[in-house]
Amino acid sequence: MNRFHSSPIFLICLFALASPALGQTKLPSPAVKQTSPASKAAAQKRSEANAEAERVAAERRAQARSLLLSLASDARSFRDQTLRARTLARIADSLWDTDHERGRELFRKAWEAAETADHETIRKREEEIARLKAKTGGGYAIPAYPNMRSEVLRLGAFRDRKLGEEFLQSLKADRQGDVNGEDQRMGLAKELLATGDSENALRFASSELATINVSSVDFLTWLREKNAAAADERYLSMLEIAARNELADANTVSLLSSYLFTPHAYVTFHGNGESYSRMGPNTPPANLAPELRSVFFQTAANILLRPEAQPQSQTTVGTEGNYLILKHLLPIFEQYAPKGTTDAVRARFEALSAMVRESVRTRNAVPPQASRTSQQSADREQALLERIDRAKTSAERDRLYFQLATTAMERNDLSARDLVSKIDDSEFRKQVQAYVDISLATNLIHAKKIELALELIEKGALTHIQRVWLQTQVAKLLTKTDRDKSSSLLEDALSEARRIEGLDPDRPRALLAIANALHLIEPLRTRDAVFEAVKAANSADGFTGEDGALDILFQSKGFSSASDNPVPDFDIKGIFGLMATNDFDQAVELAHGFQGEAPRAAAVIAIARAVLTAKRAPLPATQAAQKN
User: What pTM value is reported for the model?
Assistant: First the structure.
């Protein structure tokens, strides 16, 4: 048999031949990405573009600061103290991040001007209240007046808590106090809370939370939306304070009940007078722990069942007030409180029933505007219809139709307009129609009822500015679903705005509202609309470019109502801020076109703030590395 024999020499030769190849074998190494010349050029262009963008942004920021400093110098000589205070405070706020000391100096100058402005406003407000009381026989309703110390305080305290305390102490020492009779500390706390700064809001409010009133309870209600645990803890403290206070009465219990059961709605009684306040939206009750309710009912029962040892003159409620508050609170006790507690409160209520007049016993303890179920609304409407059938005079019927119309208005029902038409007194009917239609307009926009709002545009007894507002708001709501209809509405709004008399400050307000809508719908037309608004502002009397609002006022001997609904679209701030980010030079040119000090100041500050708060362009990689 032949066999293959491998010789050692042969094997050595094979290894010798193979070894050079083995020696050259290497593990695979990561691929090295080769950058093409085109990619390098593109990266270089991006780097240069970023560097140029940062250079331009830095230049714009320098220009913005220069605009503010120049305006601050001018503002110190403004004769209008309100304008001086507002302008200096906003400049201080805008410069704060880059120059604390200058900002603090300007805030103090603003406060001096605000004190002078507020004292003059208080005098005018008192004169207006006296005039309205004489006209209506005692009742009056007025919108809130500009409160300059409040504005300066809010901005200053947000930047520097010590400065805020300094201003608060100055206000506390002023015997004339606040313009609108408000608690400035609580007002500031609520504004801080609205910005999300619940920690500082609590710091400012803490000293006032030992007092139980509408302002303090409402603050906790707002706080609960941001920090439920902190709000509930402070509310428990309020309950403890009420339990220890010998002067706590049914009004105290009614206020405390609002936190748990009727957020932002407050019912109190003083002698024979009822007071109802709504400080916020119609909010459903919070989902609270049963333990919290238990403490409330224990505290409430202890107060409500106290012997009436206080002389009548020292109570805030009186026997009839106690009766009406118990009537208001009993449904809450029956639904949530232990049976024994409820029985005791009901027994007190029945005992008081024998002590009050028949007219008080038949009186509804819950105001019509308070939270109401649909069935309760239907019942109330039926009751009003029955009263209309029994009405003995035309004036009585007119008042009942007015109440019926406002009830329909509250549920966004255009049948409210038909009910108004049944009022006999032509002058009263005209007043009610105007009040109902603008109230419906604001309700429908809030609820985004577009079809009903379009119908109201055609039929409503609206002023020119009210119609422009409604048209522009509906146009914005239709932007995504019907752009052609949006554009058509803005054309109609422009025609409506041009019908406003040239001297009327509502004309530039209307044109600014149109410009704001155009920026969203047809941005290329924005500049022309703003230019027309500037021309109109220069012809209008008293146009400031600030505090744009729909004032809804109604005065009669039986009913008074006043509300101011802020409309940012009527103001200069928003549109000039938007324009500054798109074309700085054009925005500055238009701002300097204002002849009045107030609109020019508002426009310049809006432009500067938009630039100073804009996000900076990202640095090129090489510059970022050097900076780090």
Answer: 0.69
